[in-house]
Amino acid sequence: LGQTENARIKIRYGAKTNWSNTKIARDIMQNFYDGNGHTLEGVDIQIVKNDDGSYKVRINGDGHYDYSHLESLGDSTKDGDSSSAGGYGEGAGIVAGSLLADPDVNYVRYGSGEWSSTFGRSSDDIETAMLTQTLSQNDSSFDGAYMEFETKNVGLVEKILESKNY
Quick one: pLDDT at residue 80? Predict the structure, then answer.
């Protein structure tokens, strides 16, 4: 808790997957849809423009999950659930790596209940940087799940806003 560790994934893996803004937004929203009882009711997208021109994007939902599913690729709560997309346990890691391959994104945070896990880069060199992960404790009054990051990519922000309509 509170210690930053390498997540054993290179940032260039996220860059090489070459996910478009649409695919990133769709995967994020699909995870909220699946984790929220197969509905987007109660899923809230918040966008705040920061003084430096970047945007803080935060998506909140009612679902809950265990942080251990973010510790490695291949771990999922959806395995064998035919009503959910994915199930390979790679989406959240690829989303974090794809976002962090953009130098204008400094962190990607997932949280549920009383924990949050913040992904970052070990350096700014996309070719050699590792995805880092820091587990922290949320305020105990937080209920539900969220995902947040900051970006200057207006196209990505627009795709996130459109994603509830997919």
Answer: 55
Tell me: pLDDT of 83 over 80: no
* Whether the model pTM is above 0.70: yes
The CA distance from 64 to 67, in Å, is 10
Calpha distance 69→63 (Å, rounded): 14
Q: What is the pLDDT of residues 28-81, one digit of tens each?
A: 998 888 888 888 898 999 999 999 999 999 999 988 766 555 554 444 454 555
From the list 18, 12, 19, the residue with the least C-alpha distance to 122 is 12
Q: Of 145, 142, 129, 3, whose CA–CA distance to 63 is shortest? A: 145
Give residue 123's pLDDT: 93
Tokens of 32: 């909220």
